[in-house]
Amino acid sequence: MRRGRFGWLLRALGRGPVLPLAVAVAGVAATAVLAGQLRAEGAARDREHLDAEAAQAVQRLEGRLEAYEDVLLGGAALFGASEEVTADEWRGFVEGMRVAQRYPGFRSVGYAAVVPEEELPAFASRLGPGGTPVEVRPVPGSGPAAGPAWVVQYVEPLEENRGSLGVRFDSAPEQRAAALAAARSGSMQMTGTVPLVRDGTAGFILFVPVYGERPAPLEADARERAVTGWVFAVFVRDEFYRTALGMMAPGVEITVYDDGAGGEPALFATGGRAGDETVVRRAVLGGRVVRLEVRPGAAFPASNAALADTVSAAGTLLTVLLAATAWLLVTWRRRAEALAARRTAELGEALALQRAILDGAGLAILATDGQGRITRANPAAEALLGLSAEELRALPSVEHLAAMGTGRGLAALIAELRPGVSIQREWLYRRPDGEQLTIWVTISALPGAGEAPGGFVFIGRDVTAEREAERDRDRVFAYSIDMLAIVTGRGRFKRVSPAWERTLGWKPEELIGQSLWHFVHPDDRGEQIARARAVLEGRDACDLRGRFRHADGSWRWVSFNASAVTDDESYIVARDITDIVRAEEEMEETMEVLRANAVALEEQAAELDRLRIEAEYLANHDALTGALNRRAWFHQAATHTPTAIAIFDIDYFKKINDTYGHPAGDVVLREVAQRLEGAVGEAGMVGRIGGEEFAVFFTVPAAEAKEIALRCVGEVAREPVAIGGGQELKVTVSGGFAPWQPAPEDRPLDALSVTYEAADRALYRAKEAGRHRLAAA
Asked: 232: which strand partners?
């Protein structure tokens, strides 16, 4: 019965080209589905890879310029910290930084000074090595310059670049404009393409300003007036771009244009064979914007392209073989039945392999016919959509499935597709269980018999969690009172929260694409960049404090926390701490006042100690001669154990006062006291006990004391005393000496008085004997 019912079909297949045609159509369809899926996935990955290569090219250029900027900032710091930098110090700095080894691409590094016109001849006379004269001249090919000269003073390496000494780059418009922009902005600036002084090669120059004021002024006009010179670096243009980008070819081919110079030829091109697809990126290099056009090169690893071609070729070949086999079966059915069975089995295996690939894919895949009816759904599609394959195939068209979400109008959309073309859409889909999903869908058209597609392939991926995470992040960005931002690994803003405008006045469009460090105070920038390197090394950075420019031109203190860079992104949380810093500064000022008060109290205490010591000294010493006064001398004599006492009286002292005046008398008294103390030394103590009378108590044996007393008489008369006005006086003394006397029986405790009275009587005998002599008791 079954054979009779289908016999007519078997006979029809056996008689004509129906069977080979059916085999060919099935093979082509299956091959197209698999190849289309592979090409769609590969195209998306290729685009992502090309985007990543373009981002890496920008990062390489900007990273290299930032490394060069660190060198130039270090040179500017050397000039800013010194009153004068010599040629040897500059050479030592360049060699210490190992510029040639660590920073490829430099042709020379130097310093150009601002020299007033009237000082230019003297400056040129000592400009060369060892203070030799050098001619100051304009840049070759430029006209004369007027006003203060911007002259190259130092350049390293010197031998190769000796011809650059004395060049006035203010005479060249391109160099002057870049140097002036650096002076006004306080940051590194780059020229456009200029012919280099050494050999005319196309190159460019980087300028970093050096200011005579610390800190640098805030206003641009003030900074321009305060600039005293520039640290500069010279590069060969082709060598710079080749060392930075050349190694990326032939994976990708890169062409670089000056974005601000419309119609100008390319600055650089890797020059290899390139594909048609282009990714355009822009990089900011020293204040100039360059445009990079990145295309896949000869060695670009096209994802799945080779595999898709292989699948297409193999499927086509297999289809041709199977169709040929079917034709042979129809033509020679009896002789080829065994062979047809074997080939049919091979076709089944191939189709099973294709089915296994589709079923095992992690992406949801639907296949439809040309009218949009679902013919195939892999397990991932069933799981994602919440419908079985049978339920999906039972739908009138894929439009009914799309109507369950935001995919309405899908029929009109795919009607415009042609074989080999794909489109991508985001689709909100509500599953039968009520769960709403966000699905990213790629739709590809399959070849058909004519121009119309023979079917469509839908490849979907669940992105619900990703979109929810993005929405959460958006809410945090929108409502956080802290300033939130996402920056690149080199510190350029990619996204900012509204708090930036509320706190610092900057609108998002004014920040996006700009370098974070452009807004940091120039005096804080170097330290903050150094501390932020931890982020590039995979560590978080906390409390990076610095002054951040407000949109109104003022500076606000801001504290940053930055996450370690991953996928060339770092998350930043910033907060305005100006009030905290000012409170800390006020506290520090208060502490400084307290410390100053403490120092003042210590100084007052020291002054009181000095006054006390001075008062004690004046209480015990004669104010005119510095010798012990009468009270102190007798007190010291009573507390020691004297061996003898001598009393000296200046001869004719009243006559000196009457003739030359009391000032001359005061000079004589001071000189006599000094000569007596010099003669006595450590052997006793001298005191002024009357107007012109001095006493000495001795602590050495009496015989030695008598010799010293006699030496005192001679020492006073040794040379005249100068009393001023070119006048000199011959001064002598008379002396009475008495060894220590025992106390009398009626005054057993008064040996000092007895000895003193004996010396006083001896003094009177010396005066009566003619003065200028010593009499002993």
From this structure: 110, 207
Q: What is the pLDDT of residue 335?
A: 60
Strands 279-285 and 227-236: unpaired
Strand segments (E) across 550-592: 555-562, 569-576
Under the banding of pLDDT at 50, 70 and 90, the label for residue 410 is low
Closest CA to 556 of 587, 585, 582, 523: 582
Query: CA–CA distance from 217 to each of 53, 181, 498, 545 (Å)?
Result: 41, 15, 30, 20
Burial of 491 (0-12, 13-18, 19+ CB in 10 A): buried
Burial class (CB in 10 A: 0-12, 13-18, 19+), 654: exposed
Between strands 137-138 and 167-168, the pairing is parallel
pLDDT one-digit tens code per residue, 594-611 = 898 889 888 888 888 888
How far is it, in rounded angstroms, from Cα 193 to Cα 358? 55
What digits encode the pLDDT tens for the residues 207-266?
999 998 878 888 989 999 999 999 999 999 988 888 888 888 788 999 999 887 767 788
State the maximum Cα–Cα separation within the chain, in Å, rounded to a whole number.
183
CB 282 within 8 A of CB 290: yes
Q: What share of the chain is helix, strand, coil (3-state, %, to 5)?
A: 50, 25, 25
Q: What is the mean pLDDT of residues 367-380?
A: 86
pLDDT at residue 322, as a whole number: 73
- Count CB neighbours of 575 within 10 A: 16
HSE-CB at 31 with a 13 A cutoff on CA atoms is: 22
CA–CA dist 483, 357 (Å, integer): 49
Q: Which residue bears the tokens 């660190």?
A: 70
215 cis-preceded (ω within 30 degrees of 0): yes
What Cα–Cα distance (Å) separates residue 590 from each residue in 379, 600, 602, 741? 75, 15, 18, 69
The reported pLDDT for the residue numbered 1 is 46
Contact 96, 74 (CB under 8 A): no
Return d(Cα 205, Cα 75) in angstroms, integer: 15
Q: Is 69 a catalytic residue?
A: no
Q: What angle do CA 440, 442, 448 make, to 5 degrees?
A: 155
Residue 686 contacts by C-beta under 8 Å, 6 or more apart in sequence? 627, 628, 673, 676, 677, 680, 694, 695, 696
Owner of token pair 């600036």: 189
Using DSSP's 3-state secondary structure scheme, residue 296 falls into strand
Q: What is the CA radius of gyration of the chain?
A: 52
The pLDDT tens digits for 32-61 are 777 777 777 777 788 888 898 999 999 988
Q: Which two tokens stand for residue 460?
A: 């979907």
Cα 560 to Cα 482, 573, 593, 752: the distances in Å are 10, 6, 31, 86
Contacts of 738 (CB under 8 A, 6+ apart): 644, 645, 646, 755, 756, 758, 759, 762, 776, 777
Instruction: Please tell me which of 10-19, 431-440, 558-567, 756-765 the model is most confident about, judged by mean pLDDT.
Output: 756-765
Q: By three-state DSSP, how is residue 250 classified?
A: coil
156, 677, 692, 715: the active-site residue: 692
**pTM for the complete prediction?**
0.41
DSSP class of residue 537? Answer: T
Q: 767 by DSSP, 3-state: which?
A: helix
User: Token pair 């190159």 is at which residue?
Assistant: 203
